Amino acid sequence: MIARDTDTAMATTVEDNPSETLAHRLRAHLQALATMRLPITYREAAKGLQLLPPHTIHQVTEALEQNMAEDAAADRPFIAAMVISKWRGGLPAPGFFDCAARLGRFTGVATGPDARVFHEAEFNAVLALWAPTSHVRESE
């Protein structure tokens, strides 16, 4: 008789998988922050999620990459574009661009001018989706 480990694996829920739970928490956090229309740093994301050491930034980047895969599959802009490195002049870390390339969305170089253009487009698309500007009624 063969053990049915696959049944147990298939029954795993988000709550049973800490990385999925963190990715969902991070997505919700970023969606809530989108209305501010400003990016946050990796460290600010870690603090906002109240992550504990060690490797808090690594935990954030893994969750961001998981969210990027979900966004690509759903044909949404990368919500991860809201998170930037304080060392890269307003751009995400190179891993953002590497992941975007693996997902078929970016063909440039993470340190080149295409990176800034790509990031700006993704960031603006995220804001359009999660923080649309309200239409101001013209006075009568």
Explain this structure to me?
The protein is globular, with a radius of gyration of 17 Å. Residues 1-15 and 135-140 have low confidence and may be disordered. 53% of the residues lie in helices and 3% in strands. The termini are far apart. α2 crosses α4, α3 packs across α4 and α4 (56-73) runs parallel beside α5 (94-102). It is built from 6 helices and 2 strands. By secondary structure, the chain is mainly α. The protein has one domain. Strands 1-2 form a two-stranded parallel sheet. The longest helix has 18 residues, at 56-73.
Count every beta strand, where a strand is a DSSP E run of 2 or more residues. Answer: 2
Q: Into how many domains do the coordinates divide?
A: 1
Q: Reading side by side through the largest sheet, how are the strands ordered?
A: 1-2
Oligomeric form: single chain
Q: DSSP helix count?
A: 6
- Basic shape: globular
Mind sketching the topology for me?
Elements: H1 5-10, H2 18-33, E1 40-41, H3 42-48, H4 56-73, E2 83-84, H5 94-102, H6 113-130
Parallel strand pairs: 1-2
Helix pairs in contact: 2-4, 3-4, 4-5
Summarize, please.
The chain is an all-alpha fold and 140 residues long. The chain contains six helices and two strands; from the N terminus they run H-H-E-H-H-E-H-H.
